[in-house]
Amino acid sequence: MAIRVQPKLIDELVLYGAEDVQNCYHCGNCSAVCPHTDAVFNFPRKPMRHLQMGLEERLQSSLEPWLCYYCGQCSTQCPRGAEPGETMMSLRRWLTARYDFTGIASLFYRSWKAEVLAIGIVALLTAIGFFTFGFLQGDIHTYDGPDAFLPSSSVHIFDWAMAWVLFALLMMNVIRMWWFTTASRENLRVPVWSYLKHLYLLPLHFFTQKRYGLCEHKGPWRLHLVLVLSYVTMLVLIMFFLHQMQSGPSIVWPAHGFGYLASIGLLITVIYALRGRFKKTQVHMKHSHESDWIFIVMLLLVTVTGIVQHVLHRTGADLPANVAYVAHMMFVVPMLVLEVPFSKWSHLAYRPMAMYLGEVHRDALRHAETVSKEKTMQPVS
């Protein structure tokens, strides 16, 4: 099979945040210090080489960028300042765009203006839709109860409809990821039992970010874990316990208690991320793509407006609470509709999938090696 070369691949990756790739002369220091690399998945060196050579299809079929957690050790040890950690990050953005069949992710990563414009349009439509719905059937001076401006039952239906759309989009892109990295590879034959054997890795890596904990410095892993768990906790509360979360003004501690913990977790991690990207003292925060800033700012706005809405409702200020709720949804909807399937939040799906497929690949390679040995040992007639 002929190997096609894309000479302008490096130029394309610049739009996704790659920096100084040409400085790499493949000394191997980056792979030597990486706690995640091994004989099967060798990185950052191999993806850096493929990128320099313009081997687009090989990069598209690789799992290595997802197995990197950007602890920064590789960039620190690079004698040429080639920033291999940042290159892995840019490859994850590029792969996200590759998996996305709509082309939206590619548009957003190539143009922050397009992403901001899309967020603005979705936010405006959300405000129009919620205010129109509220005024047609309820009273803006009532937050909860029979005449509620935005009754939890109606919002709940909206949430679930949006969740199913997002799930469908993500699953289609995850299937494309599987096709590019596993199913379409002629030299990789995966036993069916292997897919079933390693299924437990999907929830394990989703909820624990386990491999991140292998990095030398544990702080970033702990904060990342708090961010993920806080977000997932809040998502579960909204999807399954919205009535309890929206009732009041009395506090329903079994539901709100977890909401408070999740809000604190989100606020702390977002402030930490903003501070780190401004100060640039940590290796993995020295370079920030526009999409990184948009993601952090959006998450901050979602968190702050949610807290403001909650405080106003608990203090009995129903009219301001309803307005704050619409403002909150103006950031929640673009975050879910645009950021989850097409931007950085999609890593929550792709990274566990990569861990899972990585073990599937190892099984396939071991199986192929066993079959090869058995053929070699057969007597020649």
Biggest sheet, in brief? Answer: none
Question: How far from one another are the termini?
Answer: 32 Å
Oligomer: single chain
Kindly state the percentage of residues in helix: 55-70%
Number of helices: 18
Beta strand count: 0
How many domain modules? 2
Average pLDDT score: 91
Fraction in beta strands:
under 5%
Given as residue ranges, the uncertain stretches (5+ residues, pLDDT < 50) are none
H/E order of the elements?
Answer: HHHHHHHHHHHHHHHHHH
What is Rg? 23 Å
Structural class: mainly alpha
Shape: elongated
Can you put this structure into words, describing what you see?
The structure is a single chain. This protein is an all-alpha fold. The chain has two domains: 9-99, Fumarate Reductase Iron-sulfur Protein, Chain B, domain 2; 104-364, no CATH class. Helix content is 69%, strand content 0%. The chain contains 18 helices and no strands. Helix 8 (104-110) packs across helix 9, helix 10 runs parallel beside helix 18 and helix 12 packs across helix 18 (347-377). The two termini are 32 Å apart. The model has no long low-confidence stretch (mean pLDDT 91).
